[in-house]
Prior knowledge:
Blueprint: H1 2-47, H2 52-71, E1 81-82, E2 94-102, E3 106-115, H3 116-119, E4 121-130, H4 140-155, E5 170-176, E6 180-184, E7 187-190, H5 207-217, E8 222-228, H6 230-241, E9 245-251, E10 255-262, E11 278-282, H7 297-305, H8 313-318, H9 320-338, H10 357-364, H11 372-382, H12 389-420, E12 434-439, H13 441-445, H14 447-466, E13 469-473, H15 477-488
Parallel strand pairs: 2-5, 5-8, 9-12, 12-13
Antiparallel strand pairs: 1-11, 2-3, 3-4, 6-7, 9-10, 10-11
Helix pairs in contact: 1-9, 1-12, 2-12, 4-5, 6-15, 9-10, 9-12, 10-12, 12-14
Amino acid sequence: MGKVAVGATVVGAAAVCAAAVYIVRRRMQSSGKWGRVIEILRVMEEDCATPIGKLRQVADAMTVEMHAGLASEGGSKLQMLISYVDNLPSGDEHGFFYALDLGGTNFRVMRVLLGGKEGRVVKQEFEEVSIPPHLMTGGSDDLFNFIAEALAKFVATEGEDFHLPEGRQRELGFTFSFPVRQTSLSSGTLIKWTKGFSIEDTVGQDVVGELIKAMERVGLDMNVTALVNDTVGTLAGGRYYNPDVVAAVILGTGTNAAYVERAHAIPKWQGLLPKSGEMVINMEWGNFRSSHLPLTEYDHLLDFESLNPGEQILEKIISGMYLGEILRRVLLKMAEEAAFFGDSVPPKLRIPFIIRTPNMSAMHSDTSPDLKVVGSKLKDILEVPTTSLKMRKVVISLCNIIATRGARLSAAGIYGILKKIGRGAPKDGETQKSVIAMDGGLFEHYTQFSECMESSLKELLGEEASESVEVIHSNDGSGVGAALLAASHSQYLEDS
């Protein structure tokens, strides 16, 4: 009986020891795995670092590329496209003007009544129209006929407020947010379709010509005064309300910048210098790249797997299309190499672009003690039922690293523009105000991003110079901005 008791005690003790060893081993494994999570986080933070010295290098590289792009076609990764806009709105514009905004699967038609400096935008009306999917891959005439018909219907609803003086033609600003080789203010040939459009017989054609032919077919008499992209429109809208606006930056799904250049500083400009002495340049800055950009293994892989490898490198690290995807890729590495979400990788985490930047912004903004927004987003998007507080803190850290890099590089780009036009440093006895008009959902809705961008720009400029630089939100450049450019380049300006 005693032997059995002793034996049982020994076996029991062995089982307890084995269990204890198992627990210790599991703890060591989990602490090893957690150590790997922290290591991945640390490397990400180091690779995304944007100390002020690096930002200055990026800004200087931007300025160098701007010079090269202005000197010759194809001389730089920055296309530095001549917009032919040499007369930005002043606020004195009167009358009513139309805008057509085509940039995706919907388009907008708009009319704006302008009342000069006193009235400004007296009234505006618009209608949004969805493009049937079959027209996005059909024939050029079919698409432009559909647009012209919608425009004609909209014109037919003009109220008494919108009165056209006798003998005048209606005038339209056309925002066309696809790659175009501009040949004059009111003409440009389509380089390629993007955003799901594929209409081969439009490529190489003048898109304004296509629209005019369609308007003629539906009996609509309207003059297309200006062909613009949304960034140039944002600049026009900003300048209309504030004469100190010198540049515009879009930070949304994609990113771009436009600014006012001295016409004599554009060596590739072949024509007569405009009377204003100025020319708006559409930089297409999303295509900027430099050895100074802090790129990670995730950026290189994202670029390699993209539809346009080697292109739009800046856009792929600062714009709303990609920030959430970078976060997904880091979380996937943590899940695969450090069991971040448990023993198996959540299947949803393998789906590209499943984490959208608005979701990342919502998590980044979570200030609740238990970070419950982070927990519910991970549950909703990735179907991860439970997450610990320390896991949620890692997610917040990643959001912060990715957004901070994007915001600070955006600031470096703006600083590069200001340096190019001589506004990057204080001048003796001068207090020349420089205003940057901003638009896009990323800037407007991701508060941590926009605040970090503005503080980084101040850091780059220094205390004295930053006092004369202001960042403002300029809404709806692609709509109102296009109508304003139709007004500032109206064929009837001499009459007024």
